[in-house]
Write a structure and sequence with these properties.
375 residues, alpha+beta, 6-stranded antiparallel beta sheet, 10 helices, 26% strand
Length: 375
Amino acid sequence: MLAWLANLILKCWKCIRKFAVRGNNDALLWCRDLVQHSCGEFSFAVVQANFVVEDNSQVETGSDAIFVGIYDGHGGVDASRYVRDNLFRHFIGNAQERRTISEESLRDAIAATEEGFLADVARTFSSRPLIASMGSCCLTGVIWKGILHLANLGDSRAVIGSVGESNHIIAEQLTVEHNASREEIRQELMSLHPEDPEIVTFSRGSWRIKGIIQVSRTIGDAYLKRPEFALGPDHPRFHLREPITRPVLTAEPFLLSRTLQPNDRFLIFASDGLWELLTNQEAVDIVSVNQRNGIAKKLIKAAQKVAATKMRVEYKSLQKIRSGARRDYHDDITVIVVFIDHELFENTVTVPELSFVGFIDSAGPSAFQIEQATR
């Protein structure tokens, strides 16, 4: 009898733990509420909206560093999944070869990942032509020795929360978004392609490059980078009336290095699904006034409540809407909040090298061994 009761309690505990990891009342919400890294803690959450979640994401913890990646896919999941599986590998290889970590390590890792994915497209294009239409935004950041290195392609965003006057936490956007909705991006595209009056057009309620895509810098999207991957009229969504003669999109990232200051408190990395619904300051305010545990999940829920209000449905009703249909309310959303505890830069906490991937409930080993990269 006691053995049976103990087994029942164990099963119930496993169910409770699984339920907590999956985000309580929303079957499409996954989270890791709080995990230690070498200079603080992080919170990680993802909510699915599409039939197949196109956001991929990861956190790699090293003995004295943390790596964050958010890869917002479009046209399918192949590109964002490829970035998740390969970008960090290229990054740590570059760092080990150079014996240091810098924004150049990120830039070269992105270039190698782009080259690798386009090689995959070339190998499979004849049997799977739509792989040429698949692409991914890429936001990645590394904290090492008190310095933040960032690289960004597309319209995901990194925001830092820092103490300002009267101890109020101020939001500062760190990344540049490569989206045709921004006048600066439209002007950039028109200056790069003066011969093409239709390089940017207003289509389907928004500014789009060649009337198709909003982001100007991506990994993948081979049909807009190489003429040999052009898609014919049997794929009307991606068919170009006039074939390209040179790349329309690029994989050149925005890069930033910043020495973290004593007043810097936390970083929010998120795909554009969050920023469509919350401002930078709204997101920072939510983080600053709530406990750390589960804060990434709290940001997603705050965004979902805004989406529910806009669509005039109750939040509880939105949580019950299935994938696919959920896309009418909000996009896939990935949020990673990284807290910065400055005292740990001098007294580094020893943490294992672990890899955390969105929607995978168990952590695996990571190759993030900085001492090998810098000795």
